[in-house]
TrEMBL record:
<dbReference type="GO" id="GO:0005886">
    <property type="term" value="C:plasma membrane"/>
</dbReference>
<dbReference type="InterPro" id="IPR012338">
    <property type="entry name" value="Beta-lactam/transpept-like"/>
</dbReference>
<protein>
    <submittedName>
        <fullName>Penicillin-binding protein</fullName>
    </submittedName>
</protein>
<dbReference type="InterPro" id="IPR050515">
    <property type="entry name" value="Beta-lactam/transpept"/>
</dbReference>
<dbReference type="GO" id="GO:0071555">
    <property type="term" value="P:cell wall organization"/>
</dbReference>
<dbReference type="GO" id="GO:0008658">
    <property type="term" value="F:penicillin binding"/>
</dbReference>
<keyword id="KW-0472">Membrane</keyword>
Length: 135
């Protein structure tokens, strides 16, 4: 159904005498090899730390193009599955790496620093900070 609608739209564009603009279709910037590798690495690391879910976003900083976008979650099974919309899992998930990079640049934290969350939940400024295995 979707392909026939696309074909009709393309056909109408080519047959319309009023259409003078060149039509360009969107091109994905996702690198399929990088996507597969990122998925495998994420799944391996999630299994290693027994995490419930994780995300990987690889962006080319010069252009802002997204090269890989992976979200995996484990619900009731032992196998990780792709998240259909992993932004739902953590609405501020994209800000975490940015905040971490800013903290690293100031020199106030190092990648080797650890935070003891006790039972997996750390209270700070009236909010909860949860580690990878808080449940």
């Amino acid at each position: 159904m979707g392909q026939s609608i696309f074909a009709i739209i393309v056909l109408s564009i080519f047959t319309s005498c009023q259409c003078r603009q060149q039509v360009t279709l969107p091109i994905s910037t996702i690198d399929s090899t990088l996507q597969v590798n990122a998925t495998a690495i994420l799944e391996s690391k999630l299994s290693e730390i027994n995490a419930q879910s994780g995300q990987v976003i690889i962006m080319e900083v010069q252009t802002g193009q997204i090269k890989a976008l992976v979200g995996l979650t484990r619900k009731d099974s032992t196998n990780y599955q792709s998240c259909e919309n992993f932004s739902v899992w953590q609405s501020t998930g994209l800000m975490h790496p940015i905040s971490l990079l800013a903290a690293l640049e100031t020199g106030k934290v190092k990648l080797s620093d650890k935070v003891d969350t006790g039972n997996g939940i750390y209270q700070i400024h009236g909010r909860e900070l949860k580690d990878h295995n808080w449940h």
